[in-house]
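pasting for ref
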Amino acid sequence: MAPNDSAGTNGTAAPGTKGAVVGRRKAVRYIVPFAVAGVAAATIGLVPALASSGDPDLPEITAQELIEKIAASDTQQLSGTVKISTDLGIPSLGGLAGSFMPDGAGDTGSASADPQTKLTELASGTHTLRVAADGPDKQRVSILDKASEYSLIHNGDQIWAYDSKSNAVYHAQNAGNAHDKAGRGKEQAAPDGVPTTPKALAEQALKAADGTTSVTVDGTAQVAGRDAYRLVIKPEQSGSTIGSITVAVDAENGVPLKFTLQPSGGGKAAVDAGFTSVDFGKPDASSFSFTPPKGAEVTEADEAEGHGKAEAEAEKAKGDLSALEGMNVIGKGWNTIAEIKTPGGAALPSAESGDVPAEAQQFLDALGDKVTGKFGSGTVFKTRLVNALMTDDGRVYVGAVTKDALVNAANNAG
């Protein structure tokens, strides 16, 4: 059993035939297809097993040494089965995601395999996935249902998504071969902010200000048949909605095998995702091959009739954001709160003003608590992790902090 050694966070740590398809409808091109690799890789990084067969007896290791082991890990080939449970304290998103998208964006009819819609389902409930990765250019993640399967495949410059339930296919190309200025291959398969390697995941989890975080090694565990160390990350500040993050790290190769995020309010884990089986050998090449099945309805991302409209909407949204009076950062570390002001104290968008669809407003109202204070009045929209106070005079305070912390920040903002 490894001791509870601690370390500070100082920033150094770390086919079907193709001609048989019945239609090729055009849709908006999104950056979201890039997420196929990000989802696969982030899933690889999140992975906790659901059962333990005893704590292995491993050599002692300090927290700093374990962080360095994660950072040094260069494992790029694996396959396995993952079970992910997410409980963020929000209603199931279901088809609601479209309510928050611009008109025409993602409108592909009744049958669609668009990743932007499908991936929202992972934000709540329990899901079983099969994953495979062979370097930065080949990843696959399949979300398994009782009678269907949804797969995202990244193979070189091709992105495919297939929903067996609706027999719908989404295709994008020239999506995965980004290179740096020297012409070297560069892993660019996910949007900014999505961890794409175990190292990136670990660094993101450890991104806390100096003096606000406790990082310890809290014994060992057995994860999917692999011996692992348990790295525990805890805020040392009060007021954070995050109680602890536990990462089980493969004792042999440094790959994170378990990621559990526990809210400070207690109860079940907010995120508990994990390998139930894992193999670090090279996956079969067929894992990354795909041909649309007979009769499938194919949506081509690069032939979008609505592309121009969506771009215009995106530019408009960008302009609206640029009208904000900037962001003020309050506090530090785990208690950091972002304060954003609308120009001239303009009221926030709502169903009453016609700026927010009624379904989306109902969703937001289900999350909100009315609050008052020296700042005036407003609504705190809450989840088990990230909360946001939206005041009636057009200010927004958001952070992974409690409702009281948001109200205090607004009271003291002047």
